[in-house]
User: Fold this.
Amino acid sequence: MAPAVAVRLKQRFQKEIGPEYKEFLELLRQLRPEINLRIKDFDKRKSLWYQIVDSEALALLRAGHQEAAYDLVHDLVEAATKQ
Assistant:
């Protein structure tokens, strides 16, 4: 029974998690050193990461608007560094 559940979960995840997640995670990986350098306060960094994850960046990537997604994320980083 458990293998059937695992198969169905895998199928669901493959439908819901497309290639845009790979690109999104790569963008976040690239930004991590900059964010850690520019925002020393842990709570501010944590808040920024949640803002990025909760933003429309992933939807923009899914729609093929890579530049807009990158701009959005960079704008969020810039705004966080000014707080």
